[in-house]
Amino acid sequence: MTESSLVPWRFCNPYANQKYDPVRSFLFNGHKITIEQKQDQKIDITQNTGNIVWDGAYILSKFVQNHVKVKGKKCIELGAGTGLVGLVTWTLGGKVTLTEIADLVQHTQKNVELNVATLTTKPSTLLKEDIEVKTLTWGNEIQLNDLSAPYDVILGSEILYLHEFHKDLLKTLRLLSGPKTEIYMVYKQRGLGEEKFFLLAKRFSFLVEEIPQDKIDTEFQNQPYRVFKMSKA
């Protein structure tokens, strides 16, 4: 047995940074999810954020797997990017709609088609009819009317860093949710005013609850990531 084989697998691997690899693989619920990343454009917090898997997407995916009942429920992901959170939710039995803006939705669609093709060909309980991708700009009433609201579960990973979109996002959440809808969001504290979203959410008549740090993946409990649950008041 080699020395390297004794090192347990970790998402944050100090020996291999996969953040910008062309292809990344994740194991959830016994399913291998393959995510293609785009590297042909500059990526930072202000542009092309949907081209790679951010840590928040992995954190939220793990949280959903461990703490959220999604089987048989109608779920939607906002700002899906590469599609990891929505795909994980689908493998857990959710009926999932992934949404993204027009400039990025093609990349989301590509990853969904890739995983649907591989995960539904072998003996599997997963159905391609239970996952779809839609274009959505927050606040766009025409696009919102094309969705099957209300949803049972709404998910959002690291979509709060641009505070100028907070009001449109909250309007979208109100239109997509019903009295029993559960909303789960994760963000990284970057000093960009992300926490102000939840103060504004209370003014939009949402109940807001911060999830205890010991409920998120152990690798990230001491890092500046926060998970919140919201519902209509």
TrEMBL record:
It comes from the Eukaryota. Pfam families: Methyltransf_16. InterPro entries: Methyltransf_16 (IPR019410), SAM-dependent_MTases_sf (IPR029063). Transmembrane segments: none annotated. This is Methyltransferase-like protein 21B. It comes from Basidiobolus ranarum. The lineage of its organism: Eukaryota, Fungi, Fungi incertae sedis, Zoopagomycota, Entomophthoromycotina. The gene is METTL21B.
